[in-house]
Specification:
Helix content: 55-70%
Strand order of the largest sheet: 1-2
Number of strands: 6
Order of helices and strands: EEHHHHHHHEEHHHHHHHHHHHHHEE
Length: about 550
């Protein structure tokens, strides 16, 4: 029996040399970089890490630099020193980013949902949709409960009970009558079923009121009208139903499904190009918004407790509640998942729009967090429409804040009303800047609070709304990650997907073709090349 010669260590730790008696001996071999203590390897690792996370680092640095630049310009005079023309030019790079992202929203949402719905089995589509809606509902309820609890504990409106006007904000909200709760939900249903798909791409339906005399009394008459703003809820519903219809067509609908999938892939290429412009646009978006604000110090001094309550609630829900839910179901590190979507979160802070962040979020969860295209492009557009954890939490805090401001104690029934109304109204909230403020009037109407105090909320909405957007898109991403884990676990329990995977990776030897069952009068004869399928002749009986 002859022993095998010793193999060289992969890192070159030892080599075999023959001795006088022919027996190989191990001789240590020094690595080229060993004398330098592995500095080159560590330097290469740092360089690879920086290259892999370059876009994330640039985006975070852009947010910090934008805040510093905005505060510096505010100290130097702010908008008054710059003037309207220079302020517009200063904010122009951020405006370009917003326009690019909004340009991508329509083709991305429609094509991704049609392709996603068409690629999933109807039963799987129903299960995924049900699990997604259940997750979004539970997290929104938890966010609403957290907001109410923090507002009742910290009492942000108690110190401002005698303040009746906001600093530097007009009372334009007082002019319009408050919207009824029933009309708000009817508008939600009307937008789910748009009368014109083309107009739904840039207009949505809403109810407004006019005061008219009726039998000597003033009556608030509801009137309907279409206003500027994409009806993304109606487009989402149509795209899902249209994708299911294409799948029902079978082979006849495959060509159109391939068209929408290719359209979506091309759109994602455009998104990858826009992502590299995002840091520059975010820097000027954040800085321009801070420069536009007047008396930033006074606003923070007077409404600091309200801002602290909102930001603390968003931090607890985003850094503890959502990661804990993700960890309990997946047993994976949630903060590594968060690091993978850091670019999308920074973009959400800069744009203050969950719809505008949707293209970048799809890119991040697919490339950095391992979520499949079928899951992300089906769930994320739905989440951007119906999942508003940050908006629900902010609305609950604002409702309790306004109640404390007016010295109105809240009983148990009113608190439950706030929770239910905030959860339901956040579904129809537009994924645009200040979209949550528009639905706050519904909650105030439900508990009979004056709507004119919304002007106080508008004074600091530029900051709170950005925190809301971060929490909204984070909840969407965690929902996609949970559904991906659910799909992976379901497939691992089934043997069919494993067999398909083995067949695709390892080509098997061709098996002999079985004898077909058919006409007994026909028998096969070998052709010139030995192929039995080349000719057929009628047998003679």
């Amino acid at each position: 029996m002859v022993a095998d010669p010793p193999k060289r260590h992969p890192k070159g730790a030892a080599a075999a040399e023959p001795t006088e008696n022919g027996v190989p001996a191990l001789v240590p071999v020094e690595e080229p970089g060993a004398s330098r203590g592995g500095c080159c390897r560590s330097r290469d690792q740092v360089r690879r890490c920086l290259r892999a996370n370059l876009l994330v680092l640039l985006t975070v640095v852009a947010v910090v630099a934008g805040v510093a630049l905005g505060l510096g310009l505010s100290q130097a005079g702010g908008a008054a020193a710059l003037g309207p023309a220079r302020l517009t030019a200063f904010a122009f790079p951020g405006e370009v980013l917003l326009r690019l992202l909004r340009m991508i929203i329509l083709p991305l949402v429609v094509c991704s949902l049609i392709g996603g719905a068409a690629s999933l089995d109807p039963s799987a589509l129903g299960r995924l949709g049900a699990w997604a809606l259940l997750f979004f509902l539970i997290t929104t309820l938890l966010a609403s409960a957290l907001g109410v609890g923090l507002a009742l504990a910290l009492q942000p409106g108690a110190a401002l009970a005698n303040i009746n006007s906001s600093a530097g904000v007009t009372d334009a909200v007082e002019e319009a009558p408050s919207k009824e709760v029933l009309d708000s939900f009817l508008d939600l249903l009307r937008n789910i079923f748009p009368s014109n798909l083309v107009s739904a791409a840039f207009r949505s339906y809403t109810t407004f009121y006019k005061i008219r005399e009726f039998n000597g009394t003033q009556v608030k008459m509801p009137l309907g009208n279409e206003v500027e703003g994409m009806n993304i809820l109606g487009l989402v519903v149509f795209a899902i139903v249209f994708g299911v219809a294409l799948r029902k067509l079978g082979p006849e609908g495959e060509l159109l499904i391939c068209f929408f999938n290719s359209f979506n892939d091309a759109t994602m290429v455009l998104v990858s190009w826009i992502m590299w412009y995002a840091p520059l646009g975010i820097l000027f978006l954040v800085a321009g918004k801070i420069v536009e604000m007047e008396n930033v110090e006074m606003l923070f001094a007077s409404l600091g407790k309200y801002i602290l309550c909102c930001l603390l609630g968003h931090a607890i829900h985003g850094l503890l509640v959502l990661p804990l839910i993700y960890f309990l179901f997946t047993r994976k590190n949630p903060y590594r998942f968060l690091w993978g979507i850091m670019t999308a979160l920074a973009t959400a802070f800069g744009t203050s729009s969950s719809s505008a962040t949707l293209p970048l979020m799809m890119k991040c969860v697919e490339e950095r967090n391992g979520v499949s295209k079928q899951i992300s492009r089906f769930i994320l557009p739905i989440g951007a429409t119906v999942n508003m954890d940050g908006a629900a939490l902010f609305q609950c805090v604002a409702a309790v804040f306004i109640a404390q401001l007016n010295k109105r104690p809240l009983d148990f029934v009113q608190i439950i009303t706030i929770l239910v109304t905030a959860t339901a109204s956040s579904v129809g909230a537009a994924g645009i800047p200040a979209g949550g403020v528009l639905t706050l009037a519904i909650i105030l109407e439900a508990i009979s609070l004056p709507a004119h105090d919304i002007s106080l909320i508008l004074a600091v909405d530029w900051l709170v709304d950005r925190s809301c957007t971060i929490l909204n898109v984070e909840g969407d991403a965690f929902g996609a990650g949970l559904l991906q884990h659910y799909v992976d676990r379901t497939e691992s329990q089934s043997s069919v997907p494993e067999l398909i995977q083995v067949k695709s990776e390892t080509p098997l030897a061709p098996l002999p073709s079985p004898t077909e069952e058919g006409n007994p009068l026909l028998k096969r004869c070998p052709g010139p090349g030995g192929d039995a399928d080349t000719c057929e002749k009628e047998s003679v009986m």
